[in-house]
Amino acid sequence: MKPKDLDYMPLNGTEYFDGSKWVCPMNFEKAIKGENARDSVYIHDVTLRDGEQTCGLTWNEDQRVRIGVALNELGVKSIEVGMPVVSDENKRAIRRLVDMNLTSEIVPFARAMKKDIDASLECGAKRVVVEHAINPYDNEYVYGVSAEKVIDRVVTAIGYAKEQGMVPTFMGWDTTRSTFDYVFKVFTEVARQAKPESIVFVDSFGVASPFTIEFVFTELRKAIPDIPLEFHVHNEFGLAMGSVFAAVRAGAAGIHSSINGLGERTGNVATEEVAAGLKLLMGIDTGVNLEKIAYTSRLVEDISKIPVANNKPVVGKRLFWVESGIVVDAIDKLNEAGIEPAMTPYLPSLVGMGEIQVKLGAFSGQASIKYWLKRLGITCSDDQLEELTEIVRKEGRIRNAVLEIEEFKKIVSDYLG
C-alpha cells in the first residue's frame, strides 16, 4: 500500500522515500548535494591494513584471506590487503587472494621504497599504494628530508612501480597537520611528474573540520583535474562521516574505510557507514551490496574479537529495538498509512539486519503490550491491558532491562490466570 501524498511534501516517487527508507528531503536539493558530487563513488577498504593497526589486533593468514573474500562479496572496488614486506605470512595471504581472481582489486601497501614495491610484485599484485608523510615536521625529524626530496622519493618510487607494470596510487599521510601550501606543492608536483593512477589525501589524526576537507578537495580538483582524488580519514573528533560527505560533495572519487571502523586510535571511517550513508542520504552508489553489510560486520567482529557497540550506526545490534510506547503507537499508525520506515531512517532488512523488534520494559505503553498479546493470540479487556502495562513497566524498572518474551508470557499467565 502506498501512502497518500500530502500538500508541500510528496512521498511517492521521491529520492528521499520508498518502501524501505525515509530520509531528509533537503539532502537532494541540487544546491546542497553540490555540483561536483559524482553519481557513484568507489570504496577502497582498508580493514586488512589500517584496520590491523588497531592496538592489539593482528590477522593471521587464513583470517586475512577470509575477510578479503567477504569484502569482495560485499562489493568494494579495492581491498588494501596489508604490507607484504612485513612478513612471509602476509605475502602468502596476499598471493592467495591475488590467485583467486576476485572482482575487487587486491592492493598491497608500500612505503616509497624499492624493496616494498618488490615485495608487492612477488605477491603477483597489479596495483600498489605508495605512501609517504606530507608534513614538514615528520619529514624533517623522522625522515630527514626536505619537501623537494620527498617529491623526488615519491616520484622515483611511483616510476619504478610503473616500470614493473604496476598501477600505483600515491597516498600522502598526515596532510591535515600541514599547511595547504605545503600539501599543494607536493601533491601537484607528484601528479605532474609521476602521474599516479590516483592520489589520496589523508586526515591521519581526524583533525580537519568537514569545511576544511571540502575546501581542500575543491582546490585540489582544480589543480589536478585529470587524476582521481581519494580520501582517508580517522575519527578522533567524531567527524569522519561528515568529512566524507564534504569530500564527496567536492568531487572525491574514492573513500578509504574499514569494516566496523577498525583502525588506529578511534579508527577509520566505517565502510558500512560510508556505503549506507552515501546511498541513502545522497543517492550516491558505492557498488556495495547493502544487504550484506550486517553479515560482513559480524564476521569481522567474530574474527577480531572486538565487539561492535549496540548503538553503532548501521550495524549496532539494538538499532532497531523499540521500547517506547509512544514510538510503537506511531509505528502502528504510520504503517497503517503505508509508511513502513516510520520511526527509523530505513528498514533493518536494507542492511541485512532482520526486522524491527518491539521490546518490553520500563517505557512500554499499551500499544507495545497489545502488539505482543496479538502475536501470542491472547485477548484481554481494556482495564486488564492497562494493569498489564503497569506490571511490565514496574518489572522493567526493577530489572533496569528489557524483558524476554518468555518472561512477558509468565507475567500474562500469572495475571490472567
UniProtKB/TrEMBL annotation:
GO terms for MF: transferase activity
Keywords in alphabetical order: Pyruvate, Transferase
Ranges that cross the membrane: none
Residue intervals of the Pyruvate carboxyltransferase domain: 41-294
Domain of life of the organism encoding this protein: Bacteria
Pfam family, one: HMGL-like
PROSITE patterns linked: PYR_CT
Coiled-coil blocks: none
PANTHER family: HOMOCITRATE SYNTHASE, ISOPROPYLMALATE_HOMOCITRATE_CITRAMALATE SYNTHASE FAMILY PROTEIN
Protein name: Pyruvate carboxyltransferase
Species, as recorded: Mesotoga infera
